[in-house]
């Protein structure tokens, strides 16, 4: 996977994960173009499209579009499963996740993604293990704050 | 004391209340200012909060580079929250192009050895996501160490991190080899999955690695078998399938290992058959595995039975309600249709059904499956597709229809009818290069000429807006207008048409706003041709003379020549305008070819053999006579063309005078049959490669070539001067000199400043007359001002490509 974008129906970016090195300018250009392309798709069209030299796999969940760019040799259908797994993880973590959760807790959405994928590939195929790791990391955050004094965990950010 | 900076969620809430972009910008600016001062104060407590806020604003599109160093400070902190946000910030704000990112290296190194695995995890993740080549080189050793740990949480991350390292610094691949030794013995699925990814990466990059890892095939087969056969595993289950992600990855690795290798392919044959037959297909996840299986079966050396199984799976996919599944099936079938044509043919009706989805892949597949037996039925469906598909695909579809019709037409009438159908219903989408092809097809169907011209005439009566249709029709009417009059038509009820009616239609095309200049050219030529087929010569003369003063230079040129045909060369008119002979087709689709005729090199669109009037396009009246290659007439003709301004000076200028500076004349057409009013000489000249004539001190001068329209002894060179230095080159003057047997003409340059940093070029046209076809040589002198001093240089240019002077 080269990158993953999450955006709303109005084209507002909610998450951007890049696995290839690109300048800020290039990222903005790609994002703009791709968002436009995907939003222009009619509901009856399939989830795949060819864009530049990449394959784009996208799926809408409620008000959010999940959009991945994969390479020629990657499997589109399993990418749909990757997207679905990520949504399941978010759902389990936030409890019936909605777009607002991702807006207000974007950093957590990234943490979860980074426990699921690394360098664009799945690092863990067990839902339980990903969630356990996040849980433990959150706990570490809490405990550290307590041990070190200073702000309580909920007050840091 | 400064109040505590506003909290992240509070900020998000506030920004979302902004009603306009301007309001939002104001809030952002205010907060950024506050964050900046907080950074300046080196506040440790709230740094984390401030960077998080910055990341939010960055996602909205606002600049956040001033937070980059703060991310580094967070990474260096001992607090886990700081590290988490710091690494996230690094991944979002830093990129390997900036030196600043290298400052991370030491922190990452320390964190890779941290006592807490979650910190190690952060470091591995960041390195594996955005590590630059330098960072990877520095830290590869640490990653390799972690690849051997027994901690599966770290091991799986290290494997993917290694993949990234190898992608960035392929030479380091070797060092990870030992650690891969027992990776596949792991029970942990995370480690298994990432290990398969790592091994795949190594095999893809190195044939030696590939050979080395082939011995893993039995182990991979075993793991896959366990996944399929083992009972329900809640941890890895997805809709009844155990760890589909791992299954897909193993199948992909097997594909790579089995490709081109008989033994490996045989070893995996059974498991592939098993997966292909046992996988549940009701959900996407099962189909994802089947899809990967099919790809593997098709790529390795599988038995024919297995291949048929694979194609049948694809055939079943085509019947699936899920359009995603149909999409991947069509894509895969396209890849296999050449190698497994018969197997794919069996699914033709399903594929044709997919045409209704208006999927262009279905169209491509359908064209690949058309043959002499199914052409009639297929064409019906393909024409439906042509009518209904997205305009983006109509040109390709039309071209495909023409090609298929040409190859498999069951009868000439069917063929003409099909062409007509496309021209009349999708005429405006037909590619320009189809027109000459169609004309040639029509010419070669001699018994259909009357039928064709009648149908085309009727089509023009209805609609003159679709240019390709109008062009083909005009050409046919010019060529076969006599057949229209005579009312002989076997295939259809012949119609009564008068000369005036035909000329009305053609003149209508000439006048219409809808007609492109190219189309007008066709119409004028057609009218001219009718002067030998019709009796209304006076009417035709009138039309031709009117266009002698057309502002369209193309048209004007033709009209002037045709006028000349009526006046001075009337005795040649009949011969020049006579019926086109049957043309022989070249192997490819009408490429431009240089055909030697009468000792003069002339390009022709089609491989026209012995066409008596293979013309030399020209503006000059004397060149007009060259057309009559059969005759030995060499009359003395004044060199100026009446409509041009009189050229001062000698013959050299006259020769080149047609390419005047003020009027840009597009390529003069062939006198006869407007088979192509495309500049054919350019196509021939396109074969002359460009060259670099001079490259010194940042000044580069490239030469590109064209052959002159009217004289093959003239090479038209365009020089392109570019400047890679950081200062402009001003008062730039290019001068050239050629040996005595040549003559040179230098036209005005586009400017006299060559902008710095290749931001633009100066172009200038140089014409070289080389009547003795000697090897071209040139001496050039360059003068310019650069960085306050004047520069002068002389150089010899000897590396002209042979095509430019031969």
UniProtKB/TrEMBL annotation, chain A:
Its main location: membrane. One of its GO terms (molecular function) is clathrin adaptor activity. PANTHER family: ADAPTOR COMPLEXES SMALL SUBUNIT FAMILY. The gene is ap1s2. The keyword Protein transport applies. It comes from Scleropages formosus (Asian bonytongue). Subunit of clathrin-associated adaptor protein complex 1 that plays a role in protein sorting in the late-Golgi/trans-Golgi network (TGN) and/or endosomes. The AP complexes mediate both the recruitment of clathrin to membranes and the recognition of sorting signals within the cytosolic tails of transmembrane cargo molecules. This is AP complex subunit sigma. Adaptor protein complex 1 (AP-1) is a heterotetramer composed of two large adaptins (gamma-type subunit AP1G1 and beta-type subunit AP1B1), a medium adaptin (mu-type subunit AP1M1 or AP1M2) and a small adaptin (sigma-type subunit AP1S1 or AP1S2 or AP1S3). Binds to MUC1. Keywords: Coated pit, Cytoplasmic vesicle, Golgi apparatus, Membrane, Protein transport, Transport. InterPro entries: AP1_sigma, AP_complex_ssu, AP_mu_sigma_su, Clathrin_sm-chain_CS, Longin-like_dom_sf. Residues 1-140 form the AP complex mu/sigma subunit domain.
TrEMBL record, chain B:
It comes from the Eukaryota. Coiled coil: none annotated. Residues 686-801 form the GAE domain. It holds the Pfam family Alpha_adaptinC2. GO terms for cellular component: AP-1 adaptor complex. GO terms for biological process: intracellular protein transport; vesicle-mediated transport. SUPFAM superfamilies: ARM repeat, Clathrin adaptor appendage domain. Its main location: membrane. Keywords: Cytoplasmic vesicle, Golgi apparatus, Membrane, Protein transport, Transport. It is found in: Cytoplasmic vesicle membrane; Endomembrane system; Golgi apparatus. InterPro entries: Adaptor_Complx_Large_Subunit, AP1_complex_gsu, ARM-like, ARM-type_fold, Clathrin/coatomer_adapt-like_N, Clathrin_a/b/g-adaptin_app_Ig, Clathrin_app_Ig-like_sf, GAE_dom. It is a peripheral membrane protein. Signal peptide: none annotated. Belongs to the adaptor complexes large subunit family. This is AP-1 complex subunit gamma-1-like.
């Amino acid at each position: 996977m080269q990158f993953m974008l999450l955006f709303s129906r109005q084209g507002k970016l909610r998450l951007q994960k890049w696995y290839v090195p690109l300048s800020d300018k290039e990222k903005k250009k790609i994002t703009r173009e791709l968002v436009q392309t995907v939003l222009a798709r009619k509901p009856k069209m399939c989830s795949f499209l060819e864009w530049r030299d990449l394959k784009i796999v996208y799926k809408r969940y409620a008000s959010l579009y999940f959009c991945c760019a994969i390479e020629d040799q990657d499997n589109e259908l399993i990418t749909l499963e990757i997207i679905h797994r990520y949504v399941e993880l978010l759902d389990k973590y936030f409890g019936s996740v909605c777009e607002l959760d991702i807006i207000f807790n974007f950093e957590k959405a990234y943490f979860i993604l980074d426990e699921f994928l690394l360098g664009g590939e799945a690092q863990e195929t067990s839902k339980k293990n990903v969630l356990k790791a996040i849980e433990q990391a959150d706990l570490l955050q809490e405990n550290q704050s307590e041990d070190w004094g200073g702000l309580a965990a909920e007050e840091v950010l | 004391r400064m109040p505590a900076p506003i909290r992240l969620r509070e900020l998000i809430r506030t920004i979302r209340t902004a009603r306009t972009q301007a309001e939002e910008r104001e809030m952002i600016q205010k907060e950024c200012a506050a964050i900046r001062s907080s950074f300046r104060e080196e506040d440790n407590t709230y740094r984390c909060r401030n960077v998080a806020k910055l990341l939010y604003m960055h996602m909205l599109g606002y600049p956040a580079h001033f937070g980059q160093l703060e991310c580094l400070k967070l990474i260096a902190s001992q607090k886990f929250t700081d590290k988490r946000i710091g690494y996230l910030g690094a991944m979002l704000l830093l990129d390997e192009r900036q030196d600043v990112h290298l400052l991370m290296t030491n922190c990452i190194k320390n964190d890779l050895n941290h006592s807490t695995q979650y910190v190690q995890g952060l470091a591995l993740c960041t390195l594996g996501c955005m590590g630059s080549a330098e960072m990877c080189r520095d830290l590869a050793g640490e990653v390799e160490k972690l690849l051997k740990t027994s901690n599966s949480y770290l091991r799986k991350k290290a494997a993917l991190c290694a993949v990234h390292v190898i992608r960035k610094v392929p030479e380091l691949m070797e060092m990870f080899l030992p650690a891969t030794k027992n990776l596949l013995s792991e029970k942990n699925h995370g480690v298994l999955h990432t290990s398969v990814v790592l091994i795949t990466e190594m095999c893809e990059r190195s044939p030696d690695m590939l050979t080395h890892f082939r011995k893993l095939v039995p182990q991979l087969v075993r793991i896959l078998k366990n996944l399929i056969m083992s009972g329900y595993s809640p941890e890895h289950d997805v809709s009844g399938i155990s760890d589909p992600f791992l299954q897909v990855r193993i199948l992909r690795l097997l594909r790579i290992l089995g490709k081109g290798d008989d033994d490996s392919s045989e070893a995996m044959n059974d498991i592939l058959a098993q997966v292909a037959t046992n996988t549940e297909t009701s959900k996407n996840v099962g189909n994802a595995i089947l899809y990967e299986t099919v790809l593997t079966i098709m790529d390795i050396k599988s038995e024919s039975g297995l291949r048929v199984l694979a194609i049948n799976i694809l055939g079943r996919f085509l019947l699936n309600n899920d359009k995603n599944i149909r999409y991947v099936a069509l894509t895969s079938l396209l890849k296999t249709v050449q190698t497994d044509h018969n197997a794919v043919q069996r699914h033709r009706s399903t594929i044709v059904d997919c045409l209704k989805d208006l999927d262009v892949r279905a169209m491509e597949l359908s064209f690949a499956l058309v043959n002499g037996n199914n052409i009639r039925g297929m064409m019906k469906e393909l024409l439906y597709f042509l009518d209904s598909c997205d305009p983006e695909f109509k040109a390709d579809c039309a071209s495909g229809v023409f090609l298929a019709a040409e190859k498999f037409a069951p009868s000439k009438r069917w063929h003409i009818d099909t062409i007509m159908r496309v021209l009349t219903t999708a005429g405006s989408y037909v590619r320009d290069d189809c027109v000459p092809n169609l004309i040639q097809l029509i010419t070669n169907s001699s018994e259909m000429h009357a039928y064709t011209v009648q149908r085309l005439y009727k089509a023009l009566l209805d609609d003159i807006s679709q240019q390709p249709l109008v062009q083909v029709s005009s050409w046919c009417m010019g060529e076969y207008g006599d057949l229209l009059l005579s009312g002989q038509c076997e295939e259809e009820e012949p119609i009564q048409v008068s000369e005036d009616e035909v000329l009305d239609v053609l003149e209508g095309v000439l006048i219409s706003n809808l007609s492109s200049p190219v189309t007008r050219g066709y119409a004028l030529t057609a009218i001219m041709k009718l002067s030998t087929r019709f009796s209304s010569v006076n009417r035709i003369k009138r039309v031709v003379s009117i266009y002698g003063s057309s502002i369209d230079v193309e048209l004007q040129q033709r009209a002037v020549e045709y006028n000349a045909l009526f006046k001075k060369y009337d005795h040649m008119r009949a011969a020049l305008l006579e019926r086109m002979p049957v043309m022989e087709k070249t192997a490819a689709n009408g490429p431009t070819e240089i055909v030697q005729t009468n000792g003069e090199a002339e390009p022709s669109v089609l491989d026209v053999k012995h066409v008596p009037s293979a013309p030399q396009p020209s503006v000059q009246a004397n060149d007009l006579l060259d057309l009559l290659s059969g005759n030995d007439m060499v009359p003395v003709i004044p060199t100026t063309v009446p409509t041009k301004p009189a050229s001062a000076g000698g013959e050299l200028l006259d020769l080149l005078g047609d390419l005047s500076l003020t009027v840009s004349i597009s390529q003069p057409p062939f006198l006869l049959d407007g088979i192509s009013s495309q500049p054919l000489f350019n196509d021939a000249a396109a074969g002359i490669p460009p060259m670099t004539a001079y490259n010194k001190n940042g000044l580069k001068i490239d030469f590109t070539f064209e052959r002159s329209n009217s004289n093959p002894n003239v090479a038209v060179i365009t020089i392109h001067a570019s400047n890679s230095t950081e200062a402009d080159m001003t008062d730039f003057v290019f001068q050239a000199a050629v040996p005595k047997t040549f003559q040179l003409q230098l036209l005005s340059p586009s400017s006299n400043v060559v902008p710095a940093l290749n931001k633009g070029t100066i172009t200038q046209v140089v014409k070289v007359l080389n009547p003795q076809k000697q090897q071209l040589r040139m001496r050039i002198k360059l003068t310019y001002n650069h960085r306050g001093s004047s520069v002068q240089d002389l150089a010899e240019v000897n590396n002209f490509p042979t095509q430019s002077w031969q």
